[in-house]
Amino acid sequence: MPDYGQDLSFGSFITPSNADPHRPVLLAQVSEQAGLDLATFQDHPYQPAFHDTWTLLTWVAAGTSTITVSGNVLNLPLRQPAVLARSAASLDLLSGGRFALGLGAGGFWDAIEGMGGTRLTPGQGVTALGEAIEIIRGIWDAGNRRPLRVEGEFHHVRGAKRGPKPAHDIPIWLGAYKPRMLRLTGTAADGWLPSLGYMQPGDLTRGNAVIDEAAEKAGRSPSEIRRLLNIGGAIQQRRQGQLQGPVTQWIEELTQLALEDGVSTFTLAGDDPDTLQAFGEEIAPAVREAVARERAGRGTVAASARRGSAALALRRDGIDYDAVPASLAASAVEPGDRRYADLRHNYLRSGRPGLVLMPSTPAEVAEALGYARAQDVPLGVRSGGHGVSGRSTNDGGVVIDLRRLSTIEPLEGPGDRIRIGAGATWGDVAQALTPLGLAISSGDYGGVGVGGLATTGGIGLLGRRFGLTIDHVVAADVVTADGRLVRASAADNPDLLWGLRGAGGNLGVVTSVEIEAMPLRGVVFSQMVFDATDTAGLLERWGAAVEAAPRELTSFLILSPVRPGQQAVAQLMTVFAGDDTDAAIRALERLADAGTLLDHKAYAMPYSGVVQTGDRHHGGGGDPVSRTGLVDHVDRATARAFADLAASGAAYFLQIRATGGAALDLAADATAYPHRHQSFLLTALGRSHDQLDPLWDTVVAPHTDGLYLSFDTDQRPERLVDAFGANLPRLREVKRAWDPENVFRANFPIPPAG
């Protein structure tokens, strides 16, 4: 009998009775308090004695914090698939990834017809369910820019917009008993969800065999499909039948079902809170322990490490997949895995890595790095995957994704020091710090990862008041090229800390940083649109206005390429870092005098309202190119050069960021980042270096001094001098000390000295 190696989970199967409207909610809360993983509910929309299950699910999700909710199972004939998909994604987003989609093909057809549904034969019901699954998954595929088209016999969509993307990969579980439904489960679903009370002896074995055969024919591993089981019974002193007896009997019988019939999720039907409590607190832990002990003796391979033939065929040369450390195997993602589409790309750059490792501790990062070094493929390290210049993805290599290292922890002691995991995002940081009256200057988009920005620069919307992000990094925890876990601070390895503050991922894998946050209760966020017909004049006047403004004001200007027949416009994003709205208004009014103002909106808000939590799902975009340069002032010559570039059509995105003020308070050699006299950063994105570079090099570059590592993709070796200036010789010495073999060479590699 099979054991598919799935982690065990336990839940409740609650009657959605509305006689006492809040009792089903209370039972779900009891389930959560007892440590159960799931709260599931029947779905009979034609039954007036029951709550509407979808409404109940949303209410329960709002009244709980950890438990996953699901219909058991939802009646598809009365729920339109595309709408159901969006409803499911919304509930998953609102609950933080705590929704599972149980589906049924339909039953009780007289009642379904009575509610306006269409009667189907059993075979038609299976066909309709298969079409619905295709539509639902298509709606969830938000990274696919093509409209969704499915022409089914019973369900169709014709150009539906995709999205939203759920918070996690929502599993689809099917209530199935007959062969056609079981085969659909094997080819298209994530789980089989029957009820033990409806089954005869041997039905689990026969059902597993049908599902396994269908899965293997589809190139899937049978272990991908979770086997769930609705169970019922009574906890009592004497044995009187299956699951009718003492706790010890329940433990024995559920352990046998797990090990011999492959069941990995048990949902207990019944509305008695005491039984639910005993199920969660006594039975579930004991079954987990017994199954883990037996699996260890048998050498059972975890389900996450088993892959079907279709996935195995996509493995890449140069990677020893069987050697992935055990601590990382369960979360590792390969081509062919469902999560691969969400992890292969970064924000702008498309990728096809052969393996993505997702460590959750610094020790696991060290294991991942040691494993990756032993493979004959490129290495990428990713915190958020947003960097324009970054190579946090690759083709055929290993990517170490740090998203699970995402804690945000205020530290005791003097100052407002915060320890932040490298895989956290700045939107999450802003949200966590706002209630404390604190903020950290951190770019302009909340989906950016902490690790990249906090080690490369950090030209953000609080920059003129507080400086760069790296200026406030006081310590870092690092996994070195040789696998050591070290601390970099003023007291420990100060040379490493100096290099990390500007050299990005050249020196090690940063797992967390300690940053001194700044007191900030609120900001004024402004959005302006200007007529940019006189592009050079507008840029020059805007630059002068920014330099004359108080340090609280930081402004970014986005210049749209000039297109025939369209008005040239420029957009400003500006933050006044303080809650003195009168002072903010005065500063913004002076900024508005830079040109003909077409639109202006301003809001008083916390910083978390500006840098909002962003989606990590990145769809890539090919291989975009970017050029950057820093300037002391946006003088007339610089403004004309940038305006000429905009008029050329060689760039599709142009931006100038103010980076003066506090960013210039440090000496050029205080950090590896040396640019401490320039007040503005110029950036242009194009489609190819062949198209962009000649104009940039001849028109714009003569007016610039230095480049910004995070945004530039021109990795010619001579550009390192532009990036690090007089600091480059010292940085090469630090590189030799910490990465002499140049392990970290994916992005603007710094050659070790000597």
TrEMBL record:
Cofactor dependency: FAD
Domain FAD-binding PCMH-type: 349-520
Highest taxon listed in the record's lineage: Bacteria
CDD domains: Tetrahydromethanopterin_reductase
InterPro entries with a match to the protein in the record: BBE, FAD-bd_PCMH, FAD-bd_PCMH-like_sf, FAD-bd_PCMH_sub1, FAD-bd_PCMH_sub2, FAD-linked_Oxidoreductase, Luciferase-like_dom, Luciferase-like_sf
Keywords associated with the record: FAD, Flavoprotein, Oxidoreductase
Pfam families recorded: Bac_luciferase (PF00296), BBE (PF08031), FAD_binding_4 (PF01565)
Family: Belongs to the oxygen-dependent FAD-linked oxidoreductase family.
Name of this protein: FAD-binding PCMH-type domain-containing protein
